[in-house]
Amino acid sequence: MSAADLPTVVLTGAGLVFFCAGAAGMVRFPDTHSRLHALTKADNLGLGLVVLGVMFQADGVVPVLKLTLIWILAIVGSAIAAQIIARATLPADLHEDDD
Amino acid sequence: MERVSVIDAARRGLVLSGVWLILTSADPGAYAVGAVTVAAATWLSFRLRSPRASPVNLLRAASLLPGFLWQSLLGGVDVARRALDPRLPLAPGWFVLPARLREGSPRVVLGGEFSLLPGTLVAGTRKDRFLVHVLDRTRPVEREFEAGQEEMREVFREVGS
After folding, report:
1. Residue pLDDT, tens place only, A64-99
2. What ipTM was predicted for this assembly?
3. Which residues form the signal peptide (chain A) (predicted)?
């Protein structure tokens, strides 16, 4: 095991814990909007930690930039998707007259 | 679509070319596909955001980044704790809060930001009010949201900064 492997194991391991927590929230939370909280927040943090961990294995600066960009695109995507799904599943008392 | 100057198009095209080069590790085999993709993405970006739109205050945005990253870390920890707690401590509910940002990108960006911060999820606006879902109704959501909205007004130059 090289010196870089330890942070990789710790960070990706922590990231997987957050993915599991996100999945647990998806199953256990009572309604669509609460479930979206679990998916957006826990999974983004999980992905961020996995990305950070994998960076320790990266060879040069381009892979690091690529990993960072992937993370940014994933969080932007999930922030937008969460708003759209939240909007599409509004409870009746919040969208009665859309004018 | 409004008229777009060569300089505006070149500026956005350069940024998007940079994104493409990073994503493909600057593989020469991907140049041809990249040229078409960057052209299409540049065209789409002008459809979605006019070249006349006032430029974003990038320095102010960058100054918010450390706090945002820290808060989104807390957001992940908070929701993970609630999801794994056997008692499932949730008090979900809705806040309807006044929107003081212009329509379009400023509201979407604020909504995205607060959808990643602890305990809040934004479902757009209705009648100039943000619909904000929260996991815990007892937290001071109004104050946090108002502060975030004020920061976003500075980023989008809706107030002097």
Report:
1. 999 999 999 999 999 999 999 999 999 887 766 554
2. 0.85
3. none
